[in-house]
Amino acid sequence: MPINIPDRLPATQVLTGENIFVMGEQRASSQNIRPLNVLILNLMPKKIETEIQILRMLSNTPLQIDVDLLRIDNRVSKNTPEEHLNAFYRTFEEVEHKNYDGMIITGAPLGLVEWEDVVFWDRMKTIIDWANTHVNATLYLCWAAHAALYTLYGIDRHIRKSKISGVFQHQVRYHNHPLMRGFDDVFWVPHSRYAEINAAEIAAHNDLHVLADSQQAGVYLVASNDGRQLFVSGHPEYDPETLDNEFKRDVSQGLSPDVPKNYYHGDLPENGPLVRWRSHGNLLFSNWLNYFVYQTTPYDLSQLKPVADKAML
């Protein structure tokens, strides 16, 4: 699939070097097709790194995608150059009048922060509610998945005594669901979080289904009945080195973190990571784009119907 992103975005050079088809702005403008419009709300501190991870995941279908990058507010970033944000990111006020075929909201390192203490919590709730009327299908990752389940369904997260960190086996629980097409019965996914969602609380809502979970990491994939909302508790988009970088960062800060489980060869950091999650990560994003963005979105986005009303807080 060609992803249409700005020529000067750092991800363009990185992904082109990985033999991923990135379509330049000039060529994209000459294509006589209606591309999918996908909005990415990037909440991670290292935005360039996360951009590359997400865009890589969007690159494995024959669909053309136009991508808009969104920032949650105008606070100065400590980890991303302001000139990068000014050049490539939009504010919510710049996009709130638009409709999108799909939206991805990333995780954020806020697992131990109370909802009301998150500095952009009010804006976050506004965007989650806005997506119900302006986006055909929304994919929430990790912290964003927990925030959306709380905002939309009143399902609160539970803080664990220790951080879940590592790569864990998962089981498919809903084999006939389109999102699970092509999945093995057992597959691996990276996790890096302090919170989890109780499966019984998900089951109490007739509109939600657990598609996959893990004995060690708990609930992983939750989808609404219509498939327009997908909640992903892990990080299928992670690069091979991401958990290693997090572990070394925490060690350097004197935090004495546990070694990420099932991640290093022989569970020894000096042996480097064993990568075994990327095929299913790519498959998840491809299935989402195909079955719940491309095949369900109206050709004319002005005809987009709101998501069915939920028992919102």
Automatic annotation (TrEMBL):
The record marks S192 as: Important for substrate specificity. Signal peptide: none annotated. Gene3D superfamilies: 3.40.50.880. The keyword Cytoplasm applies. Substrate binds at K163, S192, R249. Pathway: Amino-acid biosynthesis; L-methionine biosynthesis via de novo pathway; O-succinyl-L-homoserine from L-homoserine: step 1/1. One of its GO terms (molecular function) is homoserine O-succinyltransferase activity. CDD domains: GATase1_HTS. The active site is at C142 (acyl-thioester intermediate), H235 (proton acceptor), E237. The record marks G111 as: Important for acyl-CoA specificity. One of its GO terms (cellular component) is cytoplasm. It comes from the Bacteria. It is an enzyme of class 2 (transferase). It catalyses: L-homoserine + succinyl-CoA = O-succinyl-L-homoserine + CoA. Pfam families: HTS (PF04204). Its EC number is 2.3.1.46. One of its GO terms (biological process) is L-methionine biosynthetic process from homoserine via O-succinyl-L-homoserine and cystathionine. It is found in: Cytoplasm. Keywords: Acyltransferase, Amino-acid biosynthesis, Cytoplasm, Methionine biosynthesis, Transferase. InterPro entries: Class_I_gatase-like, HST_MetA, MetA_family. Belongs to the MetA family. Transfers a succinyl group from succinyl-CoA to L-homoserine, forming succinyl-L-homoserine. This is Homoserine O-succinyltransferase. It comes from Echinimonas agarilytica.
